Every structure is written in C-alpha cells, then in structure tokens.
Amino acid sequence: MNQKLQAEELMAKYFSGNISTPEKTKLLDWVASHEDNRRYFDDMLQLWGAVDDYEVDFEPDVAKAWLNIEDRLDQKPSLSIEHKGATEKKLNSGRRLFLRIAAAILFLIVATYWWTTTNNQLVTLQTALNENNQFELPDGSQVWLNQNSRISYKKAFRQRNVELTGEAYFDVVRDESNPFTISSGETLTKVLGTSFNVRAYPEDEEIIVTVTSGSVELTAKENPTQKVVLQVNEEGVFAKAEQQVVKAVVENENSLSWKTKQLGFNDTPMKDVFKAMEKFYGVNFEITNDRIWKCEFFGTYQNPELDSLLETMNFAMGLEFEKQGNTYIVTGGKGCGDK
Questions:
Q1: Sign of the CA dihedral running 185, 246, 215, 249
Q2: Residue 337 falls within a domain, yes or no?
Q3: Is the C or the N end of the chain the one with fewer CB within 10 Å?
Q4: Residue 262: which domain range?
Q5: 244 in a structural domain
C-alpha cells in the first residue's frame, strides 16, 4: 500500500474518532511533510464535515463508482482551440483536476462506508445464571444487569436506544434533547433522565417497570394507546395475555432486592415471601400445607444465603424443606389459624 492510500485509511479513522495515538502521529507527520499533503488533508476534512451530520445506512458500490469515473475520463471533450499545445495543456490540467475530484469522491464513499459500518455495529452486554453486573453506557448512564439478562445497542449511541431481555436497573444521564428508550419484549420505556427497574424475562407473564426517581413512560408496542406515565414509587405492569398496561403504587419492598442484595419482610403474607425468594434465588417453592398461607413473616436480611434463611423459617415456623432439583417442597408448620 502506497503512502497516500495509507494516509487515506488513517484519515478515515481520524475523522471518525477511532484512531490510535501512534496512527495519529503517523498521519500528522505525513500531512506536515509536504504542502500538497496538507491541502489534500484539508479537502478531505471539508468533505467529511459535509456528511458528518447524517446517520444513514450506507452501502456504496465502490466498483461501480470507479467505472463511472473511468467512463468520464474516456469521454473526449469537444473543444475548438487552434493551438495543439495549449489544447493538450488544458486537457491535462482538466484531467488532473477531475482525477483529484474523483479521488476525493471515492475516498468519501469508502470512508463513509467504513465509518457507518463501524458505528452501526451492535454492542451486547450480558450476564449468566447467578450473576449480576454493573456497566457504563457510552453516554455515562449506568446499568445493572440481573442474572440471565442482556442489553444491546449501536456502538455510535447517537440515539440512546437499547434493547433489553431479562431484568435491569438503569440510572440514566439526563439529556432533554435525546430521550433514552428501552425496547423490552412487547413494550417501550422512554425517559429523559431518571432511575428505574425493568423486568422483562421472556418466560414471565408480565413486564414490570418500577421507578425510583424522575418519571418514565411505558407504552405497549402494538397498541400505543396503552400507555402510562410513572412517577417515583410507582410501577407499570404490562400483561402480555391482555396486552394492557396498568399503573400501581409500589407495595413490594423487594422489587429491587436482586440489586440491593437485601430481602425485607414487614408482616408480609407468606405467598409474597415465597414469591420474593423465588425471584431472589432463582428457585421454586411447592407448598403442601395451605394453612401457612395465612401466616406472615418479619425481618430484614442483608445478602442472605438461602440455606440460612430456610433455617430461620424452620426455627420460627416449623417449616421443613426438601430439595428436588431446582424446587423446594415445603412441608410442616402448624399454620396460623383463621386470622
């Protein structure tokens, strides 16, 4: 590859902000080495600036572009000039100018294609079973992913759009001119800057958005009239079967337990206790004594081990637990009467 082609490749990286320090030094040395190089660099910078404000899917046919250029070069200009030497001089001058323009156009085509392809690449962040993790998005927003969850977004991130499968807590940097949108299953969640949780596992019957600060708009994709605006301590629930969105006050203090690493119960009915434990630990409970549904449970547990919590329930309520695969069979317990 000759020096000019190498320089054009480096210019594409430089203009798109993807150049390394050694490559930048090499490019600037080439620009400074000759006045023609500097002029060529300035021309390319102006051409690049002309398309910098556009974000389009672009797939140029470079071979066809070259053929069009060659066809133009092969055409004989119809000039009526008496002196042959003057004519040849003007033709050569015109040919050099046209070649310069053609090279600039071709560079723009290739560079724009390279830039668009690079910045439209999808970035995927994900977690495995029994793993959650925190990530920073390109705009500075923070996201915490619960287990078996995944988000993806375009590398350029000019439009703050992400796609979520699973559960995530977002702390979004405020930008009123560029809303932050989350596509999760059959819903869209739109915010300017706020903190909230989205639970959207494919196997769940509901998609739930819980707001901890600011405000959030939750909309059904297939029916935009199904829409709610949520404030602090409110949650929106999209029922997949009914294709409906409803709003409610947050009553489940464990809706963010996977992130806070804390389970809290304040005279909580046992049905809600086991539901919270199932989500927190990723297990199932099968109850054989219906009388315990009338019982309530109390206590705050920071980052509790499952076995330790089961021992506490055994001591306090007389419950017995038998593990079968990923399911715990719950037996024993005297129940709590008819209160």
A1: negative
A2: no
A3: C
A4: 257-332
A5: yes
The enclosing H or E element of 126 equals strand 122-126
Buried b (16+ CB within 10 A) or exposed e, 19-31: beeeeeeebeebb
Look at the chain and report how many structural domains it folds into. 3
Name the burial class of residue 324, with classes exposed (0-12), middle (13-18) and buried (19+) by CB atoms within 10 angstroms of its CB.
exposed
Q: Rounded to whole angstroms, how far apart are CA atoms 207 and 222?
A: 14
pTM of the model: 0.63
- Based on the domain organization, do 187 and 297 belong to the same domain? no
Q: Is the dihedral of CA 237, 241, 242, 244 positive or negative?
A: positive
Number of CB atoms found within 10 A of residue 97's CB: 10
DSSP β-ladder status, 180-184 and 160-171: parallel
Smallest Cα–Cα separation from 186: which of 243, 118, 131, 134?
243
Please choose, from the candidates 95, 40, 35, the residue with its C-alpha nearest in 3D space to the C-alpha of residue 70: 95
- Please name which of 295, 288, 296, 297 lies closest in space to residue 329, comparing C-alpha atoms: 288
Q: What is the pLDDT of residues 194-223, one digit of tens each?
A: 999 999 999 999 999 999 999 999 999 999
Same domain flag for 114 and 131: no
Average pLDDT, the chain: 81
Q: Which two tokens stand for residue 76?
A: 């004989």
CATH of the domain at 175: 2.60.120.1440
Same domain (yes/no): 45, 115: yes
Give the per-residue pLDDT at 39: 82
User: What length does the chain have?
Assistant: 339
294 or 63, higher pLDDT: 294
